[in-house]
Write a structure and sequence with these properties.
seven-stranded parallel β-sheet, globular, 8 helices, 18% strand, alpha/beta, binds magnesium ion, binds guanosine-5'-triphosphate
Length: 226
């Protein structure tokens, strides 16, 4: 009983802060996306390819979450954009407070795109709103087609599924069609893009998706009263 109450309180506090962040992103026309997957599905590899394709003048920042190490931030810092690591200690997800704290040194008016790489976990991050415009779930071809059915919450809440590591399809017993079917059983109509960070397949579509969503974020800023 007590445990449920405490959990509810934490989630409510998070929600309030997330709404404030969302409002700040809207006011500045910043698109914020929250990348979520099991450990090792290829979030950082995709971001390496994504940043590599950005113009150096692009106003992009990345917050990357892990329990320990600065490894992912080091991998991403090479591309010359703003990057910060959030190490959670033992916490299995990022929350809105961590985002607010790590954003403090950056000015949102200097950004168009904020990418959050969540802690590798298909369960905990799904309960924590970070004020993002969209959650994006990654499922790799080595994880099994059944994951959307086993971990439905994150597939339901995500606008886009990136089916990653498709270069491995000839070598693994993974049925991409069944994975897509399972994802759409949980989330009918969910958009799905297949990508490989090794061969570059699908990256054009992914970059277009990001571009379109940035245009929408700017339009939202212009449409809403300040
Ligand atoms: N074959 C293949 N391997 C990939 C691809 N993307 C990532 N990998 C490999 O998968 C492993 C994990 O990739 P990461 O990008 O570190 O995965 P992550 O999701 O960021 O992992 P965490 O941050 O620890 O949750 C690395 O060895 C990558 O080289 C891909 O498209 N194809
Ligand atoms: Mg990573």
């Amino acid at each position: 009983m007590n445990r449920i109450e405490v959990e509810k309180k934490v989630l409510n506090e998070n929600q309030l802060l997330a709404e404030q962040l969302r409002e700040r992103y809207r006011r500045h026309g910043v698109l914020c996306v929250n990348l979520i997957s099991a450990p090792g599905s290829g979030k950082t590899a995709l971001l390496e390819r994504t940043l590599d394709r950005m113009e150096l003048s692009a106003r992009v920042a990345v917050l990357t979450g892990d329990l320990q190490t600065e490894n992912d931030a080091q991998r991403l810092a090479k591309f010359g954009f703003l990057v910060r690591q959030i190490t959670t200690g033992g916490t299995c997800h990022l929350d809105a407070k961590m985002i607010e704290k790590h954003l403090a040194e950056w000015k949102l008016e200097d950004l168009d795109l904020l990418i959050v790489e969540n802690v590798g976990n298909l369960v905990c991050p799904s309960s924590y709103d970070l004020g993002e415009d969209a959650k994006i779930v990654l499922l790799s071809t080595t994880e099994g087609e059944d994951k959307p059915l086993k971990y439905p919450s994150i597939f339901f809440k995500s606008e886009l599924m990136l089916l990653t590591k498709i270069d491995l399809l000839p070598y693994v017993p993974f049925k991409a069609e069944l994975a897509r079917e399972n994802a759409r059983r949980v989330h009918p109509g969910m958009e799905i893009i297949e990508v490989s960070s090794i061969t570059g397949d699908g990256l054009d579509r992914w970059m277009e998706w990001l571009q379109q969503r940035q245009v929408q974020a700017k339009a939202k800023r212009e449409a809403a009263p300040v």
